[in-house]
Amino acid sequence: MSRILIVDDEPHIRILLEQTLEELEDEGVELLKANNGEAAMDIIRNKKPELVFLDVMMPKMNGIEVCGIVKKEPGISDTYIIMLTAKGQVYDQQKGSEAGADIYMTKPFNPDEIIEKAREVLGL
Fold first, then answer.
1. Which end of the chain has the smaller Cβ count within 10 Å, N or C?
2. What is the pTM of this model?
3. Number of folded domains in the chain?
């Protein structure tokens, strides 16, 4: 079973992403959710999702920190990370890239693009 982790401290964004991705559940994808970076790290280490949609600005540990740790840690470094954030400046995109993000997308997002990327990453 493939897993996707949605990480965002804003409940309405988590719900919107979950609603966008829920059609993949029919294809055997499990959707996991976290509302901060520390919770995300626990889930990534224990459940090993193949794909993570990761917000940047969050409490406890921001998305750049999470991404940097994941991409350097054996056993989870191949996790595909899509930074999904309101921070769209070139500087922010560079920080995401330096941390190892596979893709950097800005909010508001296009639901069709989210589904397309998820299908592509998971090979569906």
1. N
2. 0.94
3. 1
